[in-house]
Every structure is written in C-alpha cells, then in structure tokens.
Amino acid sequence: MKKRIGVYICHCGTNISDKVDVAAIAEKAAAENEEVVVARHYKYMCSEPGQKMIREDIKDFNLDYVVEASCTPKMHEPTFRNAVSQAGLNPYQFEMVNIREHCSWVTADPQQATEKAEDLVRGGIARVRYHRPLQGSQKPITPAALIVGGGIAGITAALKIAKAGYKVTLVEKADIIGGRMAQFDKTFPTLDCAGCTLTPKTSEVGRHPQIEILTKTEVIEVSGFVGNFKARLRQKPRYVDLKKCTGCADCQKVCPVDIASQFELGLATRHPISRAFPQAIPNTYAISRLGAPPCQSACPAGINMAGVMSQSGLGRYGAALALIREQMPFPSICGRICPHPCESACKRGQLDHPLAIAEVERFLGDWELERGAFKPPSAKGQREEKIAIVGAGPAGLSAAYFLALAGYPVTVWDKHPFPGGRLATDIPEDRLPQSVLTAEIGNLEKLGVLFKTGQTLGQDFNFESLEKEGFKAVLVATGWIPHSSQEQIGTAGESVSSGLFGLKTDHQGRIIAPEQTMMAAPGIFVAGECASGPGNFPQAVAQGKKAAEALRSYLEHGGLQEVKRPEGPMDSTLTEEEKRRAKPIERQQRPDGSAALNGGLTKEMAKAEGQRCLSCSECVRCGLCARVCGPKAVNLDDQERTLDLEVGAIIVATGIDIFEAEKYPEYGYGRYPDVITNLQFERLCNSAGPTAGQVLRPSNGQVPRSVVFIQCVGSRDRAKGFEYCSKVCCMISAKQLSLFKHHNPEGQAYVFYIDNRAGGKGYEEFLRRAIEEAQAHYIRGRVAKVFQEGGRLVVRGENSLVGGPIEVEADLVVLAAGLTAQKDFRTVSRTFNIPTDKYGFFIESHPKLGPVETALSGIYLAGAAQGPKDIPESVAQGGAAAAEALALFSLGQVEVEPTVSSVEPERCTGCKTCVDLCAYKAVTFNELNKQAAINEALCQGCGTCAAACPMGAIEVRHYTPEQINAQIEGILA
Amino acid sequence: MKVSYYPGCSLEVTARPYNLSCQQVCRSLGIELAEVPEWICCGSSAGLKKDHLLSLSLSAKNLALIDQQSLKNVLIPCPFCYRRLLSAREEIQGDAQTAETVKGIIESDLQAKYSIQNILEFLQTVVGPEDLKSKIQKPLRGLKVIPYYGCYLVKPRQVTRFDDPENPVSMDEILRTLGAEVLSWDFKTECCGASLSLTKTEKVVELSSRLLKEAVWKGADAVAVACQLCQSNLDMRQGEVWKREKKNYQLPILYITQLVGLTLGCSDRDLGLDHHLIDPRPVLKERGLLS
After folding, report:
1. Chain A residues 7-66 within an 8 A CB cutoff of chain B
2. Which residue on chain A is closest to B165 by alpha carbon?
3. What is the ipTM of this complex?
4. Would you say domain B2-119 falls under CATH 3.40.190.100?
5. What is the dihedral of CA A949, A951, A953, A957, to 10 degrees?
6. Of A664, A667, A674, A788, which to mutate for an interface test with B (greatest number of B Cβ within 10 Å)?
7. Domain B2-119 identical in fold to domain B129-286
8. Taking all residues of chain A, what is their mean pLDDT, rounded to a whole number?
C-alpha cells in the first residue's frame, strides 16, 4: 500500500543552508519519490511555526510518516516526536536525519555537502517506511529519594524534596553534615559568615520529619531502575548514642589520645571522641576507631593491648589491669611466659622498636600482687547451677574465672596435689616463680572458686558422680595427653578401647567437639589442649573464656548463641601521621639488657613504655569516656550495620576535595609550616578553628605582616595533568586577603595570578575592592619557587606585565589549591554506574541543557561533584536535582521508552552470551524457560546484546535490521 | 676495577685541583682511571653553540674514543662535559639521520653503550656508601658543610635522570657518609653565574654573594661543590663579594672529591688544597682534619 510521507528540510539559520542547498533537496525528495506527498524547507524547523507546519501537514495531507532533516537527534528528536504525536501520529513514525553535525558542519565544499545531505535524506525516507508505531510502558514509582552527600547541594535538595511532602534519606560519609561549607569562615562576595548561613539549613534538615540523616554511612550497592531503586547502605559505628549524647564535653577531659584533626586539615589535634564544631548536625560526639589494632588482632585472647598500654602510660595501672582481665585473668603469669605475638605485630616496631607489651603486663600483675590490690569484681548476679571443671591448667582456670564472674559456683578438680597444670609442673622457677602462680590462683579463690586437688577423673570421680552431686555441666580441660599414652578410661572407670574419659577422640587423641558449642557430649564440654592439640598459654586462656561463654549459652539459652563478629582488623601499614604521633621515647630496658630474668620493669619504665604507644587504631577503647559520660551515651560495643533502602530517585552530591599541594615541591608545602593551602587559611580565620579565628603564622604564632597568595596551584596546569580551571580560587583569595586586612590593617597582601576570574554576581566589584580598598598587590605571573633565605620565606615569581622576575618576602604563603574530585570517586562511579571525566568529576547528560541529569534515568547530580563551582551554583543544582526527583514522584509513574531490546523466544537457545554483555544489567536469564529476559526499564537500547546474539534472537525496537538496511540502501542509491 | 675518565678542558688547566683530587680519590679507593686517549673538547663552549653540528660531532668523537676503551663506565667530573656528552648521545641515538651524518663526520661507528656518570652518581652507585664508609680513615667529625650542586648538574630531569632537580640529596648523603654535619638550605641548585665570570663579572658577584651570605647565615664551615665554575666563582670572586657586602669572611669552597680525599687520608698537597684563593687549610687544621 502506498504510504504518504512528509519531508522537511531545515536551514537551521545558516548553519545548514550556507553549505547545503536545502531548497534543491526538498524539491528532489518530492520529485524522486511518489510517496513523498509534501516536501518543504524552512529556516528554523524546531521553532513553533516550523512545528506547526508539520502538525498541519499531517492533518491536511493525511501523512503516515514524517522525515525531518536538521540537527542531531540528540538535540531535537523529542521536540519533533512531540509535534508529530500532537497531530495524532505515533511519535515513532518519525525519522530525523542529521544534516548538520554529520554534514554541513563537517564538509568544506558546498557541492559535496549538498550531495551528502541528499543521500542522507534519501536514506531517511527509505527507512521510515519500515517504522512501526510503538508504545512506551508505565511503571510505578517509589516516592522517596536517596541523597548521597550532606554538603550544601545535598542539603538543598533534601529540604526541597522534603518540603514537597516526600521522604528523603540523606547519606553522609563523615560524622556530620555540612560538607566543605562547614569548614569555611566567610563566603564571597557578601562576606557572610558561612556558619551563619549554613547552620540554619543543617538545623532544619536535622529537625525535618521527612528527612532521615545517616552519617558515617556509604552506599555500597545500587540495583534497579528509575523509580524503583534498591540501595544497600553500610553505616560505620558511631559508638555514641545519638539520642542520649547531650554534647556536655565531659569526655573531652579524659580521652588520653590525640590525633591529627582532618577537619582542621592537620593544623590542630583532636581526641578520637570528638565533634567537629559545637554547632554541627548531628549535634553529638562520635568516636573514630579504625578497627582492631594489630596487637589486639594478634593476641589469641583478643586482649585490648592498645587500651592497656594507653592506661599504663597515664599511670592508671588499675584501669589497665581491668582491661586485661576483660579477656584474660592472669597478667603476672602471662607477662612472663606468653610468646607475645602482640609485640611482633606492634606498629611501633615499623618505626623503631615495638612496645614491650609482655614486660608491661608482667609489671602490672606484679604491681597488683605486691599491693594485694586485686579486688574481685562484683559478680553479675548469683546463679544456682554448679559447674565442674576438670583440670586446673590455664584453660580450666580461665574458664573458672569467667564463670565465677558470671555468678556461677565453680569447683575445679586436678589430679596433681596443687592447681596450675603445666604452669606448675613444666615451667622452671626462674621463668614462673611458684609464688606468683599461687598468688594469681589465690585471686580465683577470692572470687569463690573451689579447688579439689589430688583427684583424678575416672578414678576418684567421674561424670556420673558429678551429676549426682548436682553439677549441671562439666568442662574437661585436662591438657594434652598424646594418643599413644592415653589410658583408655571409661566413664565408670573401666578400661575402654578408644576415647578419653568415654569421649570420642580423633586419630591424634584430641577430644572431638564442635567448634561453636565445644560440647563433646550432653552437658560435657572440652577446652584447651585436650581438644585442640598442643598450644600455648594465651591460646589456652582464650579457649577457657570461649568455653565459659559456651557453657553459659547452654545453661542460659539452651545452646543458642548470638554470633558476635569479632572486630575487624585495621590496616597494618605504618602511616606518616602515626610516625608524627610517635613520642621520642626509647624502648625501656634495664641497663643490663634484660628485664625478664630479674625484677622486671619499674613503675616509671612501664609508664614510659605505655607512652610509646602510637594509638594506631585512634580510639583505644580504654573506656574512660564511657565511665565519665553522665547520660551513658557511649557504647563501645557498637557495630557496623547494613541497611536496605527502596527509593525512586537518587541524587549524587558527593562534593570535592582539594589538590594535594605537595605535588608542587618547589612551593615548600609540607616543608615549611608557614606555607598553607587556602582551605587551611580558612580554618585560621574561622572562630571555631585552631587559632580561635586569628590569622597567625603556624611556625611561631605571630601575626603575619605580609601574606602571599599563589593562584592556580593544581589548576590550569598541563604539566601536572590538571588542565581545568577550578573557578572559585580567584574569588577565594580576594576574600581571604580582605579578611586578612580586617584582622591586620597594617599587613600587606600579594597575589600571584594568571587571570582574575570573577564571573558571578557582585564578584568583579568585590575583586576591585580587594585591590583598591585592601590595597592588595596583584602580580600577574607564575611563581617559580618558595624558599628560605636568612630564615625568612621568599616567593620568587615572574612579573609578566613588567617583564622580569620579582621576589617577595612572605610571613605566610597561601596556596590557592584547586578543587579536585573526591579520592573515592571511582567507588562512587562504579556503585551508581555514573561515568566520570578524566579528572573524576561525574559526567552530566548534556553540558549545557542537562547539568544535573546523568545518562541513567532517575540518578541525578548536584554540586561540585559534577565540576568545580561556587555555592550559589551548588544550591541551584541542588534545587534542579530536587525538581527532577519531584517531577518523577508527582507523576507517580515512569514512562519507559519502547526503543529497547526484546528477545524473540522461539529463537533464543539459552546460550547466555547476552547476559554478561549488558552494561546496565538489563539482561537476566530465566532458569525456568531457559531464555534471556530483558528488563525494559533498565535497557538503554545500546544494541550490544542484539549484535552479539549468535541466533539473531534479539532485536532492538526501532533499530531493526530491516530499518537499518533500508536506510543504508537509501544512502547508497 | 677500571673506569674510563674524561676530565675535559677545564679540569686540565684552571680546575686542576678538581682533576687532581678526583684521581687521588680513585687511587685511594682502588679504582683505576683510564683517561680517554686523545680526547678532545666536548663541544659545550659558548662559541660552539652557533654550530650545533660541530658541537655534536666533537661530542661524538669523544664518545667513539670512549667506545674503544671497552669499559663499562665513564666518569666525567665536569657537569658541562657530562651533560654535553649525555645529550649528544641521546640526540644521535634518537635520530637515524643525525647518526648517519655525525658518524660520517667523525669517520667512525658509535655504540656508546657504557654508563656516563657524574662524580656524585659515581660515588653513590659505583663506589657505594658502604664501601666508601669502610675505607674512611679520618671522618669529617661534624664539620659543618653546605652542599652546593649548582644549576647544571641535576637538571633537566629527562637528561640526567639522576637525583631530584629541585631538591637533590646525593651530595648530602655522601657528605653524611663522610661524617660531616650537612646543613640544609634552599639554594642547592641556584646559579652562581657560571661562565659569566669574565663577561659579566658583576652578575657573578651578585649571584654568588647571595649564595655565600646564606651559607654564612646557616653557620657553614665550608661549601662543597661538584663543579669547577661554581668553585671558581665562589672562591675567586669571594673577595669581591665581601667587599660589596662590607663584611669580612673567609668561607672555604671545596670540591666534594677533596673532602672525600681528606677522609681517605690523602695529603692536602695531593688534593690541591693549596690552590684555592680562600685557603681551606686553617679551618681544616682547626678541626684536626689535616694530616
């Protein structure tokens, strides 16, 4: 059946018509092809008159198809599809031919351009015949938003969406929201206080019932499609209860650790329990802990050695002992005989010598024994169930200690006339004096543990007799007896052919019991070498503690146990920051070299040794803050948690970092304390900052007389691989020198610049004031070097307008470091599938017309993560991204384009080639019918699966082989 | 071990102490120096800049002569000869046409696979700090020395590929091995005026005065150099510097090889210590460093 086709050629002003003879093409199209019933050309087809032309022609000429030749479809295909559908024609019965970007703009010769355009139009006409009417589909939307990043852009977006009545989850990696703006002092050009403009917003976000703030949280996985996203979040433990902390700062007085403050950019220290500034939201403290320190991870008993050493370093020996006893009851014994894997792992060992942890532990135990200072901790309630422990070696004794602490009446049997097991029989007196062993075991007796020595299991008593005596559970910790010398003793004393005490053993003679329950038979538990084979002291003690827990869970919960994940280890590589924290104290040793064989460390030596600790995990869990916290807000057992979220729209507003100025070694950053970055200068100006708002030289705390600003550090520099302009640094320096002049009217500011970029509202005027009122010397030229001469800092640069070098003496040098992508941009890019440019900034869908959209429907960008920008632009983008989300929510449904892949079921052989090829995870394999299935909402219509399918079973609608072949033939005709 | 040795024109005459002390040090370290037979000018003088091909060919001739020695290393103490021969080799090996032309001019083939090293690189990599330390008889015992590399030796990075062009440390490390107290300063690679000594003396005095003033401010007993132009500018022109500054100092300027030689027990005469305008011997004697 003959079709009726309308053809329209656009002049595009003169963009097309200056090269292509548009009138001729229109004529030719009509003449060559009788199906073309109307062919026109017009100056601006995309304008209203142009579109009206198409709409009216569709009606008047009863058109079946429309072909329009003009610019790239990326610009106006939606415009024309819309025009066509308004006239009642299916929008997919339209074909757009690109004769601008593909023709007039890239062809020099008009003759050639016209010929090419003719061919392209012919191709379009040939193709459009094969177009079918297509319908998109509707999918419902979850009316909730996920905003990643709590800076000013994220905050703005959150408030706008929440105010429209929708739920918002605001996720922030740091402890607090506010982003970079929270670090600033004043903002240009009004010199408004940054805090005064920011905190009302953050406060509003904190109060808003529709907004949930999740700090210390990152998004680890995203799946789904527009309107239907599933996000998995990981929240690191805060260790402080948000609802209970009143911000009273009592914890600040007692925390023994000082670490460099990242918020203050290294200009000040803070405690691991800290709050960035008093007005921060959330307005509570948070504890920074990097994981279990290497000493704790290496210890089989998991003793918090970092906490122990930190307390010893303060002279708080009782507190240190309490920390040891949380995991292991015998410090004097342990310090003498343990092989101390903690010392091998100690990070200080990477610097000079590891801490003498075993020596300090021994000192602590001995100190307590000397003073008789052991105070049995009050048992947590009294329990009735009697527990029998067979074997008074370290495993049995340790189990006895922890069970007694839990309130159980414990009796310990041993076949020797004295308790201690191998501790008593196998270790020479000079390594472990009998007096020490007796004293530490004596501590157990103070807890109420009963000892029955000189009694052997199987001979003097057995499991039946214990049961008759009312013991509810038995722990066998009889130590290592090799299989060959095991007496095969049965439960009633008779000789048996295999096993030990009637319990099954393996071929090595170890009693068999599951690792988790440690129960070898009902009510009979095993711990220590008799179950795990030969081991060492800390392993035995750890097993004893574990057995106590297993026993308790058996008696209290019928064997069910909460699986407590041990704390994950921290990175074991020594960092620069840790090196700086190291106090210059030598490892303590007695003059004759050995402390072990004689009296051990002295009190002063133990204290000094404790002070050598690097606090590498930051918080050392000493527990001091928890103790002094009135509202009991500190929870040191807090754990990481995972949350799953369902949202309809995601806004990525992860912000920026600043350029690492060490990359310009000639500027002396990191070598001279008086060379700082612009962000650090901002902290000096901020009243909550390290100098209480006074601009002072970091080297000597004096007021600087001259300040030299060096622009474009890490921007506009091809040699460093950072070619872009960071947009805001010219204004930042003008602002900062104005602030400097306010602080110090006698001072002089210099700025070495390339250009002065002041494009915003009021920016140029502000810059002028910096030059005229603050009387800053602006020198056009790059800086070659910052060096010290005669002890003073000198900046040498070029004065290009004069044509020669210039040297300026500076009290303070401020490097205008450029804005860079955050260090983890690759992770974020992969999680959300948003591509980045070579600098790590996320790519928007169109640089001019789509700054907050991405190639992915439903995922939007806002703020400097998309590219360097100032605060008003970030706010504007926050609002724009919110509008995108709100548009989605108010529609309630999302239209999914039909130009996606589809599988022809008869042809699919289930080879799964397509499944892994899809970059958008749109292809899944249906195990039931063994065929590929395409999620139309996720599919972007790229055609990879269609091209790869060996059976040709996949077709991309609107890009069928039929259509494309027709187009090619039309072009070549 | 045997190493090729290219002194260059300057070390032959005006910078004899550098030549002497370098050879003396190698002798004491058990290294045999084989001077390149019939060597000619390297081609880095100012006049020859006008004719690049001539400069290149002069260098090429020397490179070919070193080839004939069949040795693995050539030590070139003069920074200008060192860089000239390095650059020439790179240029010739980088372009087949140039190589053809030059080989035609010098009438010989050119392999130049040996390692071309300056004195600092030589002491650090061929000799090595452990070996040097083991042979030291009289350490410098806390003599406060300023390491001055000069502008030419460690730049540009792509040519010399040795040490850091902004903040080099090789001389610092050698001096520390010798037992000196190495002072840190920011003028390690600032120019002393180089060959402007005769044509623009005032500039040399101006630049050298800045260096010397900073060295004195830092409390130096001596300045160590690895370049004969630096040595002559800071030493010969020192009188004029202090006259200009209206001060009265005597800061000895010593070759790194002279300091190494002292620690190895060589005599002051063998090291050419009597050839300096600012006599270093009083300071050295005072520190008990002279035999």
Report:
1. none
2. A666
3. 0.91
4. no
5. 60
6. A788
7. no
8. 92
**pLDDT tens digits, residue range A709-742?**
999 999 999 999 999 999 999 999 999 999 999 9
Residue holding tokens 């081609």? B43
Which residues contact residue A953 at a Cβ distance below 8 angstroms, ignoring those fewer than 6 apart? A903, A904, A906, A907, A908, A909, A932
The answer to whether B213 faces chain A, any CB pair under 8 Å, is yes
Query: What is the helix (H) or strand (E) element at residue A227, kind and residue range?
Result: none
CB under 8 Å to A418, separation ≥6 — which residues? A424, A453
- Determine, for residues A789 and B166 on separate chains, whether the beta-carbon distance falls below 8 Å: no
Mean pLDDT of the A202-214 span: 97
Q: How far is CA A573 from the centre of its chain?
A: 19
Q: State the pLDDT confidence band at A346, using cuts at 50, 70 and 90.
A: very high
User: What CATH architecture applies to the domain B129-286?
Assistant: 3-Layer(aba) Sandwich (3.40)
Strands of the A524-526 sheet, one edge to the other = A450-453, A410-414, A386-390, A471-476, A524-526, A519-521
Q: By the CB < 8 Å criterion, does A719 face chain B?
A: no
Determine contact: B187 vs chain A, CB below 8 A. Answer: yes
Please give the Cα distance from A535 to A532 (Å, whole number): 8
Per-residue pLDDT tens digits for A421-442: 989 988 998 889 899 999 989 9
| pLDDT value for A509 | 81
Residues of chain A contacting residue B167, judged by C-beta atoms under 8 Å apart: 665
Domain ranges of chain B: 2-119, 129-286
Cβ count within 10 A of residue A382: 10
Determine the Cα–Cα distance for residues A258 and A693; give it in Å rounded to an integer. 22
For the ranges A143-157, A413-427, A938-952, B236-250, the one whose mean pLDDT is highest:
A143-157
Q: What is the pLDDT of residue A458?
A: 84
| B80 contact A CB<8A | no
CA angle A433, A439, A444 (to 5 degrees): 135
Q: What are phi and psi of A202, to 5 degrees?
A: -65, -35
- Alpha-carbon distance A128 to A131, whole Å? 5
Residue A491 has pLDDT above 80, yes or no: no
Q: Nearest-CA residue of chain B relative to A787?
A: B186
Contacts by residues A575-581 (CB-CB < 8 Å, ≥ 24 positions apart): A577/A259, A577/A260, A578/A347, A578/A351, A578/A614, A578/A616, A579/A351, A580/A260, A581/A258, A581/A259, A581/A260, A581/A614, A581/A615
Contact B185 A790 (CB under 8 A): no
Cα distances from A214 to residues A282, A786, A875, A951, in angstroms, run 9, 43, 21, 49
Q: Please give the C-alpha separations between residue A894 and each of A134, A141, A422, in angstroms, as whole numbers.
A: 16, 7, 74
Q: What is the pTM of this model?
A: 0.86
Element (H, E) at A644: strand A641-647
